[in-house]
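Page 42, continued from yesterday. The earlier attempt failed because a stray header line got pasted into the input along with the sequence. Redoing it now with the clean sequence only.
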Amino acid sequence: MVATTTAPNSHHRLTPAEVARFNAEGYHVFRQPVFPQAKFDGLKKCFDDMLDNLDTGVRPESMDVPHFQHPELFQWLFADEVLDLVEPILGPDIALFASHFICKPKGNGQRVPWHEDSHYWKTMIDPMEVVTVWLAIDPSTKLNGCMNVIPRTHNSGRMGFSDYDDLKPGEAVFNDEIKAAQRDPSKAIAIELEPNQCSLHDGRLIHGSEPNTSNIRRCGYTMRYVSTRVRQNYEKIGQWHHLYLARGKDHAGNHYGDPTKVYAEMARFRAKHGKNGH
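This time it went through. Structure tokens are written below.
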């Protein structure tokens, strides 16, 4: 994935060297606070309110595309503090692809199997160029099941499309996992973060996380972005997914959602037809 800009702009939050490392390794860890503290506290409160009102039987790991029903999230999803992290990678014309609160409760937080996000998106967009900002809402450590990434796998021979084995339903956050022969956990890097820090990763990178058996909750907010040169397969998935124009202009003839509108029916369709998690 190569930036479409040729020179750094003053508002960019990644240096050219950091962008080069992201392109080579498939991830980058951003150790500075993403938001001013008051703005981050507002996001955390927004999440906690949603968590307190989850429907019965819904696990907190499954809070997918919450912005469909909570447009107030766009004050963070469209924030310059975030877009200035992804613009050096994607260029100045940016769309929000998805977002997801992945909250592992203390004591019984589920494992996230080894996967590539692209595996779940292969019929949705083309080309497969997605940058995820993984923002720590809580401390994210080895103790409570932080994300682990396997560097450079986004540029492997399979380019984000490994083969998968089925898992028992309920065994993990997703019901399938990359075949053991196609992953090497010995090369994994643990991404430990303090609240309001983030990592960025390519949508084709192999990653996963251990269960949370600790006494500390682990929540992250994944904010996923594409260049507007990426086209959504609206004809196939338009009834259950929207892109949103976040910055700049469209280049692919995409249809965009209205960030002031609640899409409750779309969220219900996704839940009914298993479009959760990715």
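Notes: The two ends are 20 Å apart (CA to CA).
Reminder to self: strip header lines before submitting.
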